[in-house]
Amino acid sequence: MTTFNSGLSASIRNYLTLKRALGRQYASEEWVMGRLDRFLAARGVDLVAETFAAWCLTLQHLASGTRRARMRIVRNLCLYRRRGEPGCFVPDERLFPPVHQAIRPHIFTDGEIVRLLAAARTLTRSPNSPLRPENMRLATVVLSTTGLRRGELTRLAVGDYDPPQRTLAIRESKFHKSRLVPLSADTAREIERLIETRGRRRLPAGAETPLLWHRGRPPGGYSGGSFGQAMRALFQRAGIRAETGHLPRTHDFRHAFAVNALLRWYRAGLDVQAKLPFLAAYMGHVSIVSTAYYLQFVEPSRPPPARGSPTTAATSSPDPPAREVRDDRRRAERPRAGPPGVLRRPPAPGAGDESPHHPQLSGQLGAPAALRRRPVAAVRHPARP
Fold it and tell me: Closest by alpha carbon to 213, among 158, 263, 168, 166?
C-alpha cells in the first residue's frame, strides 16, 4: 500500500478506505493520489489553487483526456475533504482540459479474422513462448467469438473452462461482476486443442495455470501490456489497419462482437431493442446504456425492415456514453440469470431464438478434419476454487 506523508495524507487514507468499503478497488486512483501526495510533501505545502495548478503542469506530457481524468480524481478527493473542512480548495472542473474525441472502433470483418488466424500460424516460437502460435490463434478465436475484455482473457485459468457445459467463468471482472460465457462448439474445440497440446508437450496445464501460458516475466500468463504488444505484432503481420491507418486495438474485438451480434439480429427480423439486455448480460455491461452505444454503428448498415416488422421500433439509438461508467454515483447491478444463450446454455437448433454468439467458425478455423479432437471428457479439469 502507498505511504502518504503530506498534509493531505489523512484525507487520502480515509477516502480510499471509504471507497474500498463500497467495493471499489481504486488502484489507479491510489497511484494518482500518491503522485500528488509526494508533490505536496516535497514542497511542504497544502493543496490550494496555486499548488494544484503547479501539479497540473507536471501532466503536460500526457494526452488531454488522461490529464482530465487525473484532475477529476483529485477533485473528487477534494469534494470528500470538504465534508469535514468546508473551506478547503476544490478545483473548478470548467477549467479542466476538454474531453478528447472518442476513437472510432475498428469493426473486424470475417476476412480479417481469417487473415489473423493465418498469420498466427506463422509466428515464431521461442524458449519463453513455445506456444506463441497456438496462444495467438486461441486469443483471436476467443476474442472474436465472445467479445471478452483483454483483462478477462489474460486472467482466465484452465480451470475456468467447463468442458461439459462449454462455458468460461469470468470472475470479478469490471465493476466486480462475474458471469458465465457460453461458447460455440468451434471455440470450445480450440480451447481443448490447446490444452491437449500442452499435455502432449508436458507443459503446465493444471486448473490454476493461465489459459494463455508462457515462460515470460513474470512466468505464467500475459500481462495486459505484453498481450497488447503481442496482438499489435499479429495485426502488423496480418496487414490489418483501421480507417485512420493505425493498427487496430485489442478492444476492437469487443466492439466488433457487439456490432456483429446486433447485425445478425436485425437481419433475422428480431426486435433488437428487446435484445439489448441479453447482450448487456453476455458482455458484462453494468447497464444497457453501454450496450446501446453500439447501435450507432449498426443503423447505417442494416437493411430496411419490412412494414410491420418489430425492428421498426428500433430505428433510433440513445446517445453513446462518454465512458461506460465514470460517475461515483452509479452502482453496479447484481448479476442476473439471463435467457438461453446469455448466461445459460443456448437453445437447441430450430428453437426460434438466436444468442449473441458468433456463428460457427468452421470456415474460418481451418478444415473440419483439423478441428476434430478427442471427446470433451478427455480434457476435463477440476473446478477452480
Answer: 158
- SS3 (DSSP) at 238: helix
In this prediction, residue 59 has a pLDDT band, given cuts at 50, 70 and 90, of very high
Residue pair 98/92 in contact (Cβ under 8 Å)? The answer is: no
- In the chain, count of helices (H) and strands (E)? 14, 5
Whether the bond into 356 is cis, omega within 30 of 0:
no
DSSP at 319: P
Give the separation between CA 290 and CA 342, rounded to whole angstroms. Answer: 17
Which set of grid coordinates corresponds to residue 220?
Answer: 505464467
Cα–Cα dist 156/160, whole Å:
6
* Tens of pLDDT, residues 199-258: 999 999 999 999 999 886 656 788 888 999 999 999 999 999 999 899 999 999 999 999
Answer for the pair 119, 237: CB distance below 8 angstroms, yes or no.
Answer: yes
Q: Could you tell me the pTM of the whole model?
A: 0.66
